[in-house]
Design a protein that fits this description.
CATH superfamily of the largest domain: Type I PLP-dependent aspartate aminotransferase-like (Major domain)
CATH topology of the largest domain: Aspartate Aminotransferase, domain 2
Number of domains: 2
Bound molecules: pyridoxal-5'-phosphate
CATH class of the largest domain: Alpha Beta
Strand order of the largest sheet: 4-10-9-8-7-5-6
Largest sheet: 7 strands, mixed
Number of helices: 17
């Protein structure tokens, strides 16, 4: 700890952090391997959250590391506008092998989930204009949704604090989320109550008219806002409503992508096929920043009607399909495939569920929910101070029990790397059994 204290931590303004408190009591991890990080005091920390929902293959995987190193020594960067490099095209092709349907024929690369969301929203609006549906300009999201921090993402997102000081897009509305402890507390897997919550989209359609609505965006499982699992039949009904009303459906799979539910995307798990999928995080197992939007051919084609020498989409990033990210993507997907990590996650989901639900009955617990290798434990706020208990449990887990968990308010989220062993799951759950009643 003395090393940490002597390091100057002042000048980095950390994202989504209590900066002053962190700098008083830092949590630094400078090494990672497999399921573990290493703290500055040399102690190993068991990673219960895949970093920040991203290191699905675990840490420091040699196949991925070698691919990045080799690429860095071969081509550092090539311009991405009107130019390219072979690996970018190969990466797009590789990613589409994981798509839920052959209708997905195109990939737009970004550097993050936030950029993927804003890209998908822009493509949705452009698509409606290109196909002559000039009035289809409204974007619909959900309450308690997290779609990153771009102006598009916070507008369709449903988190008041993330919007508080900022001007938002005007052409946006929201439906309700599906979280309901009265009906669904301690559900194992998908809750049985709540399919009809999808009908709130019909309320929005009634309000504006389907001819005004361009797209609906949702996370199949809302992750960052506390792991909200969709009720049985909910996403299927959302799909039907979108199809019936000619509204594009965008799945934001930044968290649910790449094996979290034991399938490439949640789309395959739920057997619901959207029109665009946004992803990031697990795309490179968190090694190099990269995001992507997977797009159906019909949508891409609508942008191709004009002069072939003119730019077809006035949008892009300097680092779209960056060589290091492209190399990381290909190697990461090879690891997922080669090691059967999605099947592995699937095989462990039942054990994970049983272990998590064994915590039922602990003081302060008001819900446990789970699907695949994602789970959440919701606690009662302490003295009505929302988030205080969550923060304390998180800190105790890290400092005293050497476990990395995530918290949102008073909800603990768990999403271990897909290489997790049963003994690791035991360790996480038993640590929480100790910590929660004492906070
Ligand atoms: C569903 C979803 N969309 C978008 C984002 C934003 O991704 P990023 O932080 O890479 O911009 C996140 C991040 O957690 C997310 O969970």
């Amino acid at each position: 700890m003395s090393n940490v204290k002597s390091q100057n931590l002042e000048h980095l303004w950390m994202p989504f952090s209590a900066n002053r408190d962190f700098k008083e009591n830092p949590r630094l991890m400078n090494e990672g391997r497999g399921m573990f990080y290493k703290k500055t005091d040399g102690m190993s920390v068991l990673d219960g959250t895949s970093g920040l929902w991203c290191c699905n293959a675990g840490h420091n995987r040699s196949h991925i590391v070698n691919a990045i190193q080799n690429q860095a020594s071969k081509l550092d960067y090539a311009p991405s506008f009107q130019m390219g490099h072979s690996l970018g095209f190969k990466a797009a092709e590789k990613l589409l092998e994981f798509a839920p349907s052959k209708d997905f024929q195109y990939v737009f690369f970004t550097n993050s989930g936030s950029e993927s969301v804003d890209t998908a929203l822009k493509i949705a609006l452009g698509y409606q204009q290109h196909r002559g549906k000039k009035d289809k300009k409204i974007l619909v999201g959900r309450d308690r949704a997290y779609h990153g921090v771009g102006f598009g993402g916070i507008s369709v997102g449903g988190l008041p604090m993330n919007k508080k000081h900022f001007s938002l897009l005007s052409n946006v509305d929201h439906i309700c989320n599906t979280h309901n402890l009265e009906h669904n507390a301690f559900s194992k897997g998908q809750p049985t109550w709540g399919e009809e919550m999808a009908n709130d989209l019909l309320r929005i359609i009634e309000k504006y008219g389907a001819e005004k609505i361009a797209a609906f965006i949702t996370e199949p499982i809302a992750g960052s806002t506390g792991v909200l699992i969709p009720p049985i039949g909910y996403l299927e009904r959302i799909r039907r409503i979108c199809t019936d009303n000619d509204i594009l459906l965008i799945f934001d799979e930044v968290i649910t992508g790449f094996g979290r539910l034991g399938s490439p995307f949640a789309s395959q798990y739920f057997n619901v096929i959207p029109d665009m999928i946004t992803c990031a995080k697990g795309l490179t197992s968190g090694t190099v920043p990269m995001g992507a939007v997977m797009i159906k051919k019909e949508i891409y084609d609508s942008f191709q009607a004009g002069d072939s020498k003119m730019i077809d989409l006035f949008h892009g990033y300097t680092y779209s399909a960056h060589p290091l990210a492209a190399a990381a993507l290909i190697a990461t997907l090879e690891v997922y495939d080669g090691e059967g990590l999605f099947e592995r996650a699937n095989g462990l989901a039942g054990y994970f569920e049983d272990k998590l639900h064994s915590l039922k009955g602990l003081d302060y617990l008001i819900d446990i929910r789970n699907l695949g290798l994602v789970g959440a434990i919701e606690m009662l706020p302490r003295n009505k101070k929302i988030g205080a208990r969550g923060y304390d449990v998180f800190q105790t887990a890290f400092h005293d029990e050497n476990i990395l968990i995530r918290f949102t308010g008073d909800t603990i989220a768990l999403s271990p790397p897909l290489i997790v062993e049963k003994s690791h799951i035991d360790q996480i759950v038993e640590s929480l059994r100790n910590i929660i009643p004492n906070n």
